[in-house]
Design brief:
single chain, about 350 residues, alpha/beta, Purple Acid Phosphatase, chain A, domain 2, 7-stranded mixed sheet, 12 strands, about 35% helix, about 15% strand, globular
């Protein structure tokens, strides 16, 4: 896409001055980046995780360069994007979605993208364009999930998808004896916070959340069923919402209540599985790793969930922190923890 078009969209996204300096894009993936991809070793053993990016004009301009840096890593063979491809105060336009789709098409490796709240749930806000969020959700699915059962990226991977049930974004895959599931669970109380002009969720809003949660619960169950049958070493769940936000203070039913059946299902399945379970999320924007359902956690009482000490949650840097680093995760099936990770700084942004 021409730099002028990118700059104009970036300016619209933040209601700021027109971007005048766009970083030069690296050679398209498939040339220099493609040769790096062909040299990747231990295919499937390393994946990248990003989320809550790009946020605002500077990150929109830098996003292609960020992608090219992930492409250049010789180990990474899968990328997870945890949702929020725009900030919460910018317009949810078709042009913007098309811009980001053109960006993610630069990824050499398969990209699995889970939908965030900023690209649909919050689009009722005036500064987002006063859209109907359900119409925007349909638009996101049309733009980013036009090939159900396949990931994004220049070398897409076949995925087990729930497209037939109406949820093409809910997918499952297996790498190195690790089961992965990408789940459409979003902030804003899983989309139930009232839209502009309302004090409670509309019937249409509640119906959408109920159906989507039912599919998420089904996919969680099926993922762990496969993990037990196939004697998988670990399970990885990827989603946008931070259901254990450490900055939330005392959680309330209005802010977190809709996550209850999902948290309980994850806890029950994790305990039954008995091996490492990893939950990667964005939403709260600052890197964090913890065990949110360990014995003694205050979240156990709030959600009425059983303790699951084998569940580790990792939040990736996002929003203003998104350009600091990306998460590089390595799978070692012989290790008791199975996964290890490092935060890799971006350069030259």
């Amino acid at each position: 896409m021409r730099a002028a078009h990118r700059a104009a969209l970036a300016a619209l996204a933040v209601s700021a001055a027109l971007v005048t300096a766009i970083p030069a894009q690296a050679a398209p993936a498939g040339s220099g980046a493609g040769s790096a991809a062909s040299a990747k070793k231990l295919k499937g053993a390393t994946f990248a995780v990003i989320g809550d990016v790009p946020y605002g004009a500077a990150q929109i301009a830098a996003f292609p360069t960020m992608i090219d840096q992930l492409n250049a890593d010789p180990d990474v063979s899968l990328v997870l994007h945890l949702g929020d491809i725009k900030n919460g105060s910018s317009v949810c336009s078709d042009d913007y979605f098309s811009l980001i789709r053109s960006d993610v098409d630069r990824f050499v490796d398969p990209l699995v993208y889970t939908i965030g709240d900023n690209e649909w749930t919050d689009c009722h806000r005036a500064n987002n364009g006063s859209y109907n969020p359900l119409e925007r959700l349909a638009a996101v699915r049309k733009v980013f999930f036009d090939r159900p059962g396949q990931s994004l990226g220049r070398h897409p991977e076949n995925l087990s998808t729930d497209a037939a049930a109406g949820f093409p974004e809910d997918v499952r895959l297996v790498r190195q004896s690790v089961q992965f599931a990408s789940l459409h669970v979003v902030g804003s109380d899983n989309s139930l916070l009232p839209w502009t002009g309302n004090t409670t969720a509309t019937p249409e809003q509640a119906a959408e959340e109920s159906a989507r949660t039912a599919d998420v619960l089904s996919l969680i169950s099926r993922t762990f069923d496969h993990a037990r049958r196939e004697h998988s070493k670990a399970v990885v769940l990827a989603l946008q919402a931070d259901m254990f936000d450490p900055t939330a203070g005392t959680p309330t039913a209005e802010g977190f209540g809709a996550f209850t059946p999902i948290v309980r299902a994850i806890a029950d399945e994790s305990v039954r599985f008995g091996r490492p379970v990893y939950l990667f999320n964005g939403d709260s924007h600052l890197y964090n790793d913890d065990k949110p359902l360990a014995p003694g956690s205050s979240w156990l009482g709030f959600y009425g969930a059983q303790a699951a000490p084998n569940l580790t949650r990792v939040t990736v840097d996002g929003s203003n922190s998104a350009t600091k680093d990306w998460l590089k995760v390595t799978i070692d099936p012989a290790s008791p923890a199975v996964l290890s990770w490092e935060r890799v700084p971006y350069t030259g942004l």
